[in-house]
Design a protein that fits this description.
Elements (H helix, E strand, L loop, with lengths): L9 H24 L11 H20 L8
């Protein structure tokens, strides 16, 4: 995988985006659920923006999966 002729495909890029977006979404939810955020509770504006960007990253990743093994 890490040789001079390796090319990242759109499917691999999509999987990386799905994993990254999923980890970000779960991380934000766990951060809030564990009480590490605002002690008053609720989502703040930065958490909402982060969740929206993570969801967008998931959608982009899902849209890249069917494009197959063409170079990214």
């Amino acid at each position: 995988m890490l040789n001079s002729h390796f090319t990242l495909t759109k499917r691999q890029l999509g999987l990386l985006a799905i994993i990254g977006g999923g980890v970000a979404l779960v991380g934000i939810l766990l951060f809030d659920e564990l009480g590490l955020s605002d002690p008053q509770g609720g989502f703040g504006p930065s958490q909402k923006i982060g969740m929206a960007l993570a969801a967008l990253m998931l959608l982009v990743g899902i849209s890249l999966l069917p494009l197959g093994d063409t170079p990214a």
